[in-house]
């Protein structure tokens, strides 16, 4: 073994395929240690004997080239060889060069470059995206809601729709529709509390946005690339059962899944109660959660329920009064599984009358 190692069989001349020979290993000709004590130095590209320091072979660095040195740099710079992925929500190739604030006149040069690279439309989009992200984070709506709201806003901006409306009202409307489209509904009152826009103005913007999206059909060049639905689906008002998961979680029940299940069945039975037909979904959800909490042995008072559902204490008591009066219609054996109905009957006498 003149070179000190052989990694593969020489089968190329005979037309055979190369196969690794595990019986032939790389040995240091100076130390002749077996097994050898070798070190791969990727910085220099050498295979080195750790005992005597003899360079035995050249190696190729197969590690990822997407490296960053920001953790080792006191200046918190990031001299990686790749940049961020392009943002499909922003027009342009986004491959502009950033000029550092070093040297004479560098600040003026950077200012001129920013004016050239970022037009007024891009600045409006970026500001709207920042507002949407901050507002959705404040209500814990999730990334999907934020991205959907940004997508809707870009469609409005590209088509120059909603002229004369404030950007804050358009952002609120986009978030409200995005919550419904992604099946994480928020009440109109929750969206209104995020902004300084009046309820009437947000309501107008919401109706105009729905009409615009239905007309557009949800189709544009960004939809295909981002994976959003290309067809806008009009949704009705938020239902009481859509709010139960979040409210039961906020009330911190020991078994929120069970309380939620009982609440949903109570809401389904409450549809037959005529006195609750005209009440808001918030009131119905609050009353059903209040009753379900007592039926599951984890009672909560009306003030606790009212605080979580964002309604008044009197509203919860009024809606619950109608629900309690129709308890024989709501608490039926057909509406609950057999094992669940047995536990409910055991706690039915603990449910307060008002």
UniProtKB/TrEMBL annotation:
Keywords: Metal-binding, Repeat, Transcription, Transcription regulation, Zinc, Zinc-finger
Domain TFIIB-type intervals: 23-57
Gene3D superfamilies in the cross-refs: 1.10.472.170, Cyclin-like (1.10.472.10)
Any one GO molecular function term: RNA polymerase II general transcription initiation factor activity
Subunit structure: Associates with TFIID-IIA (DA complex) to form TFIID-IIA-IIB (DAB-complex) which is then recognized by polymerase II.
Protein family per UniProt: Belongs to the TFIIB family.
Protein name: Transcription initiation factor IIB
Organism field: Staphylotrichum longicolle
Lineage: Eukaryota, Fungi, Dikarya, Ascomycota, Pezizomycotina
């Amino acid at each position: 073994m003149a070179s000190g190692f052989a990694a593969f069989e020489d089968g190329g001349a005979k037309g055979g395929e190369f196969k690794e020979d595990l019986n032939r290993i790389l040995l240091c000709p100076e130390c002749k240690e077996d097994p050898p004590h070798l070190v791969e130095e990727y910085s220099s590209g050498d295979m080195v004997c750790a005992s005597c320091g003899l360079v035995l072979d050249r190696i190729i660095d197969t590690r990822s080239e997407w490296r960053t040195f920001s953790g080792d740099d006191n200046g918190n710079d990031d001299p990686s060889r790749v940049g961020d992925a392009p943002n499909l929500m922003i027009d342009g190739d986004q491959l502009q060069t950033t000029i550092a604030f070093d040297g004479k006149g560098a600040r003026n040069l950077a200012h001129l470059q920013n004016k050239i690279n970022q037009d007024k439309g891009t600045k409006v989009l970026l500001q709207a995206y920042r507002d949407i992200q901050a507002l959705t984070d404040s209500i814990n709506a999730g990334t999907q809601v934020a991205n959907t709201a940004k997508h809707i806003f870009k469609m409005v901006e590209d088509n120059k729709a909603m002229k004369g409306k404030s950007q804050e009202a358009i952002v609120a409307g986009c978030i409200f529709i995005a919550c419904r489209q992604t099946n994480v509904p928020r009440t109109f009152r929750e969206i209104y509390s995020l902004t300084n826009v009046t309820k009437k103005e947000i309501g107008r913007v919401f109706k105009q946005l729905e009409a615009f999206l239905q007309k557009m059909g949800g189709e544009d060049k960004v939809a295909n690339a981002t994976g959003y639905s290309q067809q806008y689906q009009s949704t009705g008002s938020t239902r009481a059962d859509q709010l139960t998961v979040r409210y039961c979680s906020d009330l911190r029940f020991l078994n929120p899944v069970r309380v939620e299940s009982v609440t949903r069945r109570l809401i389904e039975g409450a549809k037959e109660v005529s006195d609750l037909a005209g009440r808001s979904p918030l009131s119905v959800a609050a009353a059903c959660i209040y009753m379900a909490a007592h039926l599951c042995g984890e009672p909560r008072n009306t003030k606790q329920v009212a605080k979580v559902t964002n309604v008044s204490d009197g509203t919860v008591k009024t809606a619950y009064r109608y629900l309690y009066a129709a308890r024989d219609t709501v608490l039926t054996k057909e509406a609950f599984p057999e094992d669940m109905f047995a536990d409910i009957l055991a706690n039915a006498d603990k449910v307060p009358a008002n």
